[in-house]
Specification:
By secondary structure, the chain is mainly alpha-helical. Helix content is about 75%, strand content about 5%.
Length: about 260
């Protein structure tokens, strides 16, 4: 240990404390050799004690500040941990929803492929068309539970009349309209649809038009379901990105906490 530099103690201004100079003096004051014979001046000894008190006071304030910062970081770490658990739960739910959505899409795709066969088997009856449209509407209502879109933006399947093209909100309204406005035409179309073999091409025109309209409707429905699947995939990707960000923040907070504990 070196002898105490009393000139440095003498030069330190107690009326205008220089914190930077005080920090530079800490190693000298800590490792200097202070003996009874060296403390010849009571004034300098008292001043040295006062300087040491200032150093200790500075350390206490730094300790308080570090304790407060550690407390804030701990609270932030707890909040981030809770948010991470919430994101994990949402991510798990999103994966489950996507899995169910894919299964529903597979079932609806099978339904779309079999609709043409059903129409041919039933002779393209307007009642059959209404039944198929009802099945599609039911499928859409089930799909709404797997998609985050609102009712205002959710596309709705209209019940179209195959004879005049009018749209109806429910199947009941469509059937009443057909019975009231197109009763004779409906019977004629069913009769033509059940004829096999020697009919002319003109007799098959109504059936072809009806089938074309319904196939277009089914194609639109399939596009909507694929879009819903893509939206769910985007939502899942966004949740994964948010979870990655939260993990990075949690790691930074852990490093900051470790640094404070080391200090």
């Amino acid at each position: 240990m070196l002898d105490m530099d009393w000139r440095l103690v003498e030069a330190f201004n107690m009326n205008d404390i220089d914190t930077a100079l005080l920090q530079e003096m800490v190693p000298t004051l800590t490792y200097a050799l202070v003996t009874e014979t060296a403390c010849t001046s009571p004034r300098l000894s008292c001043k040295l004690i006062r300087i040491l008190q200032l150093v200790v006071e500075t350390f206490i304030e730094c300790r308080k500040g570090d304790a407060y910062d550690a407390h804030v970081l701990q609270e932030d770490l707890i909040a981030v941990s809770n948010e991470r658990d919430s994101f994990r739960l949402r991510l798990k739910e999103a994966k489950t929803d996507v899995k169910a959505l894919k299964a529903q899409l597979a079932r609806c795709t099978t339904l779309l492929k079999s609709c043409s066969q059903v129409l041919h088997a039933q002779g393209c009856s307007p009642h059959t068309i209404a039944a198929v449209e009802s099945m599609l509407a039911t499928s859409d209502s089930m799909m709404s539970t797997f998609t985050p879109t609102t009712d205002a933006t959710m596309p709705k399947v209209a019940h179209l009349c195959a004879f005049c093209g009018k749209a109806f909100g429910t199947q009941d309204y469509l059937l009443k309209h057909i019975d009231r406005r197109h009763a004779s035409t409906s019977d004629g179309v069913v009769g033509k649809g059940t004829i096999q073999g020697g009919g002319s091409s003109n007799n098959q025109t109504p059936n072809i038009d009806i089938l074309t309209k319904l196939e277009l409707l089914l194609a639109q429905h399939e596009v909507h379901m694929k879009k819903a699947t893509a939206d769910s995939a985007d939502t899942l990707q966004a949740l994964q990105n948010e979870l990655a960000i939260e993990r990075a923040v949690a790691n930074e907070l852990k490093l900051a906490r470790s640094d404070l504990q080391w200090r």
